[in-house]
Design brief:
By secondary structure, this protein is of the alpha+beta class. The protein is 49% helix and 20% strand.
């Protein structure tokens, strides 16, 4: 039977308690957000559909969720520690304690991952694109294996996995596939998977069953909602009036009916001069400016999405992770040097060690660069 020591239980609690200060910060943030929501309610009517309001509510719920989960898990570890301290535990109870400990181990890792997901798009759904690279039919089969791996990961961790588009291989596997993974922090969890994945195994498509190397490219892109809200602030607008030139009659030329509006933050300038009324020209100019700003923000989002795409080729020398199935079994992440020998578990969707290692490594790198 598997044995468990009191030290292992206490080490698990200590591992989680390292983030106590961060939880305190989260509690303070919740209080600040509540004040912001209160101010919105005072100053605005019918603001419940506004983007600012929805974002604040979402942020507050996410913070409350992780704080609650953290405190609940600490309490469960304390309870386990108390039970373990009891004398004369029978074998059945020791087995139950060990099983609970293994569950809490996974829970602690998941909580730490969520605590590390603090970048702009981490909470978003994500688009996963898998493309077979060098390696022919084996590479297409490898792309399909990765597709199944992420499908299993999503199902085991409560995420919704949807096929957007898939192109099957001529003999086996897939040439490419685009998938949508929906759920809290989907992008934050899977951003660690972006890059080239290399497989080494005895080829099932080779008559001599020779050793073969295959590559596949995984791209992970946050799903950015189309929630562009154009709010024209008076202090950001430079409004000028002038006499309109050209056709329009004596009235148009003598009165300053034309309007020029400059949006100071972006430098976008719009002019309306065709109407006889200055008020009407201003109204038209503001509508045009809103349209121009919408296009400007949309282009920024397109450029942002493009920046998440990798320019690497799915071939030798670019891989982030090696999956070796022959002559021995090992999966090694080349960014963090994490090695996992339970290859079948990983290919069945057990990605937590790699996700956690990647996030911790990034956090340490960012701290050292400050």
């Amino acid at each position: 039977m598997n044995t468990l020591s009191i030290k292992e239980i206490r080490d698990l609690k200590e591992k989680l308690q390292k983030f106590t200060n961060l939880i305190s910060n989260y509690k303070n943030k919740i209080i600040e957000i509540e004040k912001q929501i209160e101010n919105l309610n005072k100053n605005l009517k019918n603001n419940y559909d506004s983007i600012d309001y929805k974002n604040l509510i979402k942020k507050k719920k996410n913070l409350e969720k992780i704080v609650k989960k953290y405190e609940k898990t600490i309490q469960e570890i304390n309870d386990l520690e108390d039970v373990f301290d009891l004398v004369n535990l029978d074998e059945e109870l020791r087995k139950e304690i060990y099983n609970n400990y293994k569950i809490l181990q996974k829970e602690v890792d998941n909580i730490i991952i969520e605590l590390l997901l603090d970048e702009e798009y981490d909470s978003n759904d994500c688009i996963l694109i898998i493309t077979a690279g060098a390696g022919g039919t084996d590479a297409q089969d490898w792309a399909n294996m990765l597709y199944r791996m992420y499908y299993n990961w999503a199902n085991k961790n409560g995420f919704k996995f949807s096929i957007v588009d898939i192109t099957t291989g001529n003999e086996a596997g897939i040439k490419s596939g685009t998938f949508l993974i929906s759920g809290d922090n989907a992008y934050g969890y899977l951003k660690s998977e972006k890059g080239v994945h290399r497989l080494v195994r005895n080829s099932p498509f080779n008559a001599q069953n020779k050793r073969h190397t295959s590559f596949a490219l995984v791209e992970v892109i946050p799903k950015i909602e189309d929630d562009i809200n154009i709010d024209l602030k008076e202090e950001e607008l430079k409004i000028e009036t002038f006499k309109a030139g050209g056709a329009g009659g004596q009235h148009v030329n003598k009165n300053e009916s034309a309007v020029r509006i400059t949006h100071l933050p972006t430098g976008i300038v719009v002019v309306s001069s065709n109407e006889r009324s200055q008020h009407k020209n201003k109204e038209i100019a503001l509508k045009i400016l809103k349209s121009r700003l919408y296009e400007f923000e949309l282009q920024k989002r397109i450029e942002k999405i493009e920046s998440f795409k990798t320019k690497q080729q799915a071939a030798w020398g670019n891989q982030i992770r090696n999956y070796i199935l022959h002559p021995y079994k090992l999966i090694k992440d080349l960014r963090t040097n994490l090695e996992v020998y339970k290859v079948e578990e990983v290919l069945d969707g057990e990605l937590t060690p790699f996700i956690l290692s990647f996030l911790l490594n990034n956090k340490l790198t960012n701290i050292n660069n400050i």
